[in-house]
Write a structure and sequence with these properties.
Residues 2-218 form the Glutamine amidotransferase type-2 domain. The chain is of the alpha/beta class. The strands form three sheets. A seven-stranded mixed beta sheet has the order 10-8-9-1-3-2-18. Strands 4-5-6-7-11-12 form a six-stranded antiparallel beta sheet. A five-stranded parallel beta sheet has the order 15-14-13-16-17, with helices on both faces. α19 runs parallel beside α20 (481-496).
Length: 645
């Protein structure tokens, strides 16, 4: 696992280019503390330079695979972040076609696959990756991001210079303008993260998952190379689906045990991570090292469940209690995430990664299980609604307007009249009680009033209208929430601790198969009373896990933020958001802020902790990246080298 960085056509001389690429790598050294490699060469025009760099976390071929890696005639090179699990098979095929290998790792395999298959090389790769290949002769950059977006890739483009990196920090080292994108801020306040392809910075973009980026002839372009369809195209019966899913998941787990360094697993006590740990226990000759996080608040503490799974499989188990020390750790997390990010579970994810890194360098996780196998409560709820005939649904929705306002369920019934995608988005909105004009100051509203922050998501919903509602939700969540929230959260938290994470449930062979089945197999096999989603996964795991784990109601990686905000975090948030510095940004309506801060309190109905948390993360991001844009980390000494061509 590594971090990569680079640029093309940046006006500078060799010495400046060498310093710049070194700075871009040094600021992401947490992603790869073991090694650094850079290359500097001529750019497209006289007086410009191109460069590639990487930071390495050594996992495979520890003694070799120093990057950048060149092809046989030194005409092209690659920097790579990730793991390719089928690289040995690809090596055999490429050797048979005449390619010569100087290393025993997966990085060189990608480069030779690009030589052999061109831009289609990504279709042969099984794993998680971002990489950049610079073709010196053609002066062409080819970069790609894996299918689900497990590994990040960002880029800056001003019509001439292309600057890219695993983290936005690297790009900012090049001195690009730190201008806030108001449209991205508008979307952040809907989703609690900035959706792809935007970032919070103008002219800095994310390469979306399953996309390639090409720079050639002074132009850039992006293109999707893969998509997952949740259309019902496979008619396997239940028994066949269970057996084939088991086979695919065992294979996906087995190939992710490939490592020359210590390896373990996150264990929450929920279904997804427990299944992964169970399969690992079957495949490994020694006890699996497992890592769990708990809270002092009993209603949020899942350690007892994790212990049961650990005892069941005889793992080497480690635990950590998270206390509400947000005031001390939050500024560091804000710097780590590059953009405003308000998923509060980033805190336990950071701590479980920190705990795991004390014992291992690689950890497997259960990420992706909810999206692929249909585990979210809203999937089951929408499946139930979908079973009601359309005419009856409409009649019930219209009749709900005649009910008294205090009748439970009235608002939910009324949503049945809305467009399906709109209903789903509105259910998760951060500011449902404020119109956008009442949310913002007049000046800021002028910048975003023509922007629809959920238009991109609605477009995805409408593009798959042929699917049933649950399959439609799974598709949209996989392309949005999974990529831009969950996988960002895990990548940032783990890589800040120099820990590699792997997700067997997001193996694309497994995901494609499960997504092709009848949706009722994923949700509840058509019997609403029978479960709460993940029917197929539960059936597959029935002989692996104890009944109390299988039958547990789903509970996400939740954080007791409402409780914490009634302690010192509340006063901290109020102080930060009430400061002249925050108010001087002229983003939000002062009346709205005053109402939020003055009515927030101990009563559940007036606790605005989710909203205040999101605004707090945004304000701390401004202070870190806009107000004080200086370098915030100290140098460390590692081996490094630079190649000149």
């Amino acid at each position: 696992m590594c971090g990569i960085a680079g640029f093309v056509n940046v006006p500078c001389g060799y010495e400046h280019a060498e310093q710049l690429i070194d700075d871009m790598c040094q600021i992401i050294r947490h992603r790869g503390p073991d090694d650094q490699g850079t290359w500097v060469g001529n750019g497209i025009d006289n007086g410009t330079c191109a460069a590639l760099g990487m930071r390495r976390l050594s996992i495979i071929d520890l003694a070799g695979s120093h990057q950048p890696i060149f092809n046989e005639d030194q005409s092209m090179m690659i920097v790579f972040n990730g793991e390719i699990y089928n690289y040995q098979e690809l090596q055999q095929n490429l050797r048979a076609r005449g390619h010569q290998f100087r290393t025993n790792g997966d990085t060189e395999t990608i480069l030779h696959a690009y030589e052999e298959y061109g831009d289609d090389c990504v279709n042969f790769l099984r794993g998680m990756f971002t990489f950049a290949i610079w073709d010196i002769k053609r002066q062409r950059l080819f970069a790609a991001r894996d299918r689900f977006g497990k590994k990040p890739l960002n880029y800056y483009w001003d019509g001439q210079q292309l600057i890219f990196g695993s983290e936005i920090k690297s790009i900012l080292e090049a001195g690009v303008p730190r201008e806030v994108n108001p449209l991205a801020l508008d979307e952040y306040l809907v989703y609690r993260y900035v959706p792809s392809p935007l970032t919070m910075f103008k002219n800095i973009m994310k390469v979306p998952a399953a996309h390639i980026l090409i720079y050639e002839n002074g132009r850039i372009s992006t293109k999707r190379y893969w998509d997952i369809s949740f259309a019902h195209t496979c008619n396997d019966d239940e028994a066949t689906a269970i057996e084939h899913t088991r086979s695919l998941l065992e294979e996906a787990t087995r190939i992710r045990l490939m490592s020359e360094v210590p390896l373990g697993a996150f264990l929450s006590g929920g279904l997804d991570s427990s299944v992964v740990v169970g399969i690992m226990s079957k495949l490994m000759s020694q006890p699996v090292k497992t890592f769990s996080i708990g809270f002092e608040e009993d209603s949020f503490n899942e350690l007892p469940h994790a212990r049961k799974v650990a005892q069941h499989f005889g793992t080497d188990h480690h635990e950590f209690f998270v206390k509400y020390d947000l005031v001390s750790i939050l500024p560091q997390l804000v710097w780590d995430y590059d953009e405003p990010f308000a998923d509060s579970s980033m805190l336990p994810t950071y701590y479980v990664s920190k705990l795991a890194r004390e014992h291992v360098t690689v950890s497997l996780s259960g990420d992706g299980g909810d999206e692929i196998f249909g585990g979210y409560e809203q999937y089951r709820r929408e499946y139930q609604i979908y079973q009601i005939p359309r005419l009856l649904r409409g009649t019930m929705a219209r009749a709900s307007y005649l009910l008294p306002n205090n009748v439970r369920g009235k608002k939910r019934l009324q949503t049945w009249l809305r467009d399906y995608g709109t209903r789903s988005i509105e259910a998760a909105m951060l500011f449902p009680d404020y119109t956008r004009s009442a949310l913002y100051s007049k000046d800021f509203y002028h910048l975003v009033q023509g922007h629809m922050p959920f238009e991109r998501h609605l477009g995805l919903y409408h593009s798959v209208q042929h699917l049933n509602p649950t399959a439609r939700m799974q598709y949209v969540d996989t392309l949005t929430y999974l990529t831009d929230d969950i996988l960002v959260k895990v990548d940032k938290a783990s890589m800040f601790n120099s820990l590699e994470t792997r997700a067997p449930l997001l193996d694309h062979h497994l995901a494609e198969y499960v997504a092709s089945l009848n949706p009722s197999l994923r949700i509840n096999n058509g019997r609403i009373r029978d479960g709460h989603g993940k029917y197929l996964l539960k059936k597959m795991a029935s002989e692996l896990l104890p009944p109390e784990i299988l039958e547990r109601p789903k509970r996400g990686f939740a954080v007791p933020i409402h409780t914490w905000f009634r302690k010192d975090v509340q006063s901290y948030a109020h102080d930060v958001l009430n400061s002249s510095q925050a108010k001087g940004r002229n983003i939000f309506s002062q009346e709205m802020l005053h109402n939020l801060l003055s009515t927030d309190g101990g009563h559940p109905l007036t606790n605005h902790s989710e909203v205040l948390w999101s605004l707090l993360c945004l304000e701390l991001w401004y202070q870190t990246f806009i107000d004080e844009p200086g370098r915030t980390t100290a140098k460390i000494t590692t081996s490094s080298y630079t190649i000149k061509k």
